[in-house]
Each structure stands twice: as structure tokens, then as C-alpha cells.
Amino acid sequence: MAQLPDPVEGHIAKAFDAALSDLRLQIVSMGGLVIDQVSAAVRALLDGDATVAELVLSREHTVNELERFVDREAFQLIALHQPMASDLRMAKAVSRITIELERAGDEAKKIAKFAARLATGEPQGPVLAVSPYLRHMAELTNGMLRDAVRSLDESDAEMARAVRARDSELDHEFAAALRQIMSLAMQDARFLGATIDTVFALKGLERIGDHAKNIAEQVEFVASGEDVRHKAKHAEAGTPEK
Fold first, then answer.
1. Does Cytoplasm appear among the keywords (predicted)?
2. What is the CATH number of the domain that holds 190?
3. What is the model's pTM?
4. pLDDT category, 242, cuts 50, 70, 90?
5. Mind listing the pLDDT tens digit for each residue in 127-154?
6. Which of 232, 203, 217, 230 minimizes the C-alpha distance to 93?
């Protein structure tokens, strides 16, 4: 006689799937907010707009609250449901992705703080000197973030791999911007303080790209069960993988 499915077990599985789906939606929402934070912070910097900078700073607590909420819910899911391997990977990845998004939000906050100082009289020369790079790097980082979050939402490992591939273009832009701004600093020492702040803004955008890449790696991990972070590190170092 065939064994009937356990209705309780089926109910638990459905509850787990619903909770995990809700967490993914929360990440997509958080990702949208962080993308907007990055875009607004760079806009505030380029336009010297203190109002937009303050908007970014005022929304920082929302990013942090979302990170804490999703991390707590992911931990409870793992503790209560003891999921199968693929679901366990997703639950763990969700927690890690929120950390990456929160750190990207932190970088946007730092850029916004610089923008607020710039609006109150800090020399604008260094920012103007590298404004094309700032704008292009912001477009790259936001595009990487958007596609990384979308790849999670759509379970698209190919899109995630494409995000990782774009990181080298962002690194190239960062290096070119540094050369440009160092040339300016050597010409006029009055810009030294503002130059340092601008370098940190550029570095912040480069780090946001790294966070997007890390999110994409988590998506690939969910899809394949293979931790591609170590493969990427070996490839960057030019050493064979063990």
C-alpha cells in the first residue's frame, strides 16, 4: 500500500518556501534603496547639493534596519526548518547578500557626507577634475548592483557571472581617475584636503562594485553549490586552485 504524503510535512515545506520568497522580496526592496542611495550621493557630490546629501543620510537607518531584519529572519529559517542543501544555500546567501548591500549603503553615506561638506565651501576643483570618472563609475556600480540583485530575484547565474566580469572595467576607471586627480594635487597644494576626500569617494564607488561582485558570487553559489569566491581569488592572484 502506497504511503500517503504527510500533510504536516507539506505544510511546513510550503511555509518555508513562502518565508524564503518573502526574504528575497525584502532583499530586492533593500537593493533598490541602496541603488538609489548610491545614485543620489553621487548626484549630490557632482551638483554640490546639500539637500540631496541630507536625504541620503536620513535614509541610512532604513538600510541598516532592513539588513538586521533580513539577517534575523534568515537565521530563524535555518534554525527552525533545517532546510535541504539547496534551500540552506539560499538562506545563507540571503544573509550574506544583505551584509553586502548594507556595506554598499555605508559607502553611499560616506560620499553623501563629503557632498554635504562640499556644499558648504570645500574646494570643488578635485571633484570637477574627475567628474566624468565619478559619473561613469557611478553608472557602472549601480548597473552592477542592479543586475546582481536582479540575478538573485530571477535565479540567473549567467547574469551573475556577467556582473563579476564587469568589475575589471570599474577597476580600470578607478585607476585612471587616480592618475588624473594626483596630477591635479601635484599642481596645487591648496586642493590637498579636497583631493583626499575625492579619492575616498572614488574608492567608495570601487568598493560598491566589489560588493555587487560579492552578491553575484552568492547567486552563483546558490545556483551551483560551488563557492566561486576562492576561484576568483586564485584567478586574480594568478595561482592554480587547490
1. yes
2. 1.20.58.220
3. 0.84
4. very low
5. 999 999 999 999 999 999 999 999 998 8
6. 217
50 close to 120: Cβ distance less than 8 angstroms? yes
Distance CA(39)–CA(169), nearest Å, equals: 19
- Is position 57 within any domain? yes
Structural domain of residue 224, as residue ranges? 7-237
Structural domains counted in the chain: 1
**And the C-alpha cell for 43?**
548626484
Q: Take residue 134 and report the three cell numbers written for it.
A: 565619478
